[in-house]
Amino acid sequence: MTRMKALILMTGLFMTGLINSPYTFAQDVTENTTNASDITLQLRNHHDITKTAYLTQMAWQLSHSFASADQIKQQWQQALETQVTPFPQFSRINTHALMAQTLIHYSNGMTLNRWRTVDLHPKPQLPELTTGLTPDQAFQIWVNLPYFWQQILLSPAQQGFNWLELNSEQITSDSPATSATIPAYAAVLNQLAKDSSTLIEVLQLTDTQIDYYDDLAIALLRQQQHLNTEQWLALANDWIEIYQLLELSPMLLTADEQQQMQTLIERVLLIWQEQQDTIMSIDTRLFPVIKLLLAELPQKFKNPDHLNINLNQQFLMMAFDINDINSYLNHPNRKTVQENLEVCLNLSVSQSPDPRVPIAINQFESCYNDFMDWATNVATESTFTGNRIRLDNPASLQRALEMPSFQITNILSMQTTTDEACQQQLKPQVNVLEWLLATESMAWFHDRWPGLFAEYDKSTEFQQLFTMGKEINTYPACFNQSQILKDQFLNLQSKWEKLKQ
How much is the pTM? Predict the structure, then answer.
């Protein structure tokens, strides 16, 4: 999976709210062993991460089914026998954090403290079975199994849970019910710093101390998974997210947590340096950026408002594969977009005196419309996406290729295939950077004024954003990327042979 596609898949749309959907597996054993802890242990011991996530989705769906007991049991057995291809890694690019850092740096309407003041964090969500899963979602479900299964077992299932057969062996787990006694990231840090347990053993200990795992805890667990499996690009993305979460969060690590984090940093840095040659062969930018990140991270222990703008720029440029993000974001073509953005972000800032003076309805509607227009119209204009034409003139093509790839996405699609019938099936694409900035600005605006969004129902308009997000990087069946690459290679090979002659 490319970095860009991973970035698109991981986009966190805030509008969905909480999906009422976690499920728990029970087994054919005595009633006192049918609980979330036992089920979690069964799943983690007998199924891989991807299959476990799929079974949890299926269990939630069946627990709300009105089918007969026999039908449900049959469907469950089919799910257990279904072959699910495991994801090789669980890489994630946190676009919510990435766009926050971009807004802070490139607009006069957002600051670090403003972002920290208003940034709502929903509880873990279980995607519907029909939507499929991204690797990152599968990992999050696997980590939060006890949380999801507690909800599943409490679901109003009319058929009972006799169909939940995982394994015939008896479980004698004495794990107490979870309770949020300490922050999830603190529990995880404490265990990972010891470096004496497998990831499943770490979870068995931390499951009993928390309600559910927050973003920082999941990122810490994910980096351990990728460290163990030597997935260096995925590990880099994990530590970028850890850096971002610590920078954007208003919470501070305690002295003990700082020491535990320092232990992790030193351990990862040592391995990172040992693997320099391998990492450089993946991407020459990767090794120095993560080495700088690991050296810079402890600065946040001393000064939580510490910002390394250059480092944040490098995250953004790596994610979007662009060499000069300043030129793009400060281009005159973005002047109107930028001005509207800054006005609305400043309107959303809390003003003295308290109690806060509410935003006027006409201002709310105006800003909402500006953000929506930015995502749905401006981000699709040819200025930001390129015309849907094939450039046969080498000079014209060269000028286009000097622009960022996300700004000429339509041109690249048309250039990639020579089949006219296929070209006609290509739909106009969106500028993913502009769409993400607009969507995350709307997310922050929503978190600032949730009451107004609830009063003036925007669900229909939000569906348009959902649809756009799902269609990014989606192409017709004729757009066989593997074959296109082969055709391009043969074309280059033919030109090279002619040149040698």
Answer: 0.86
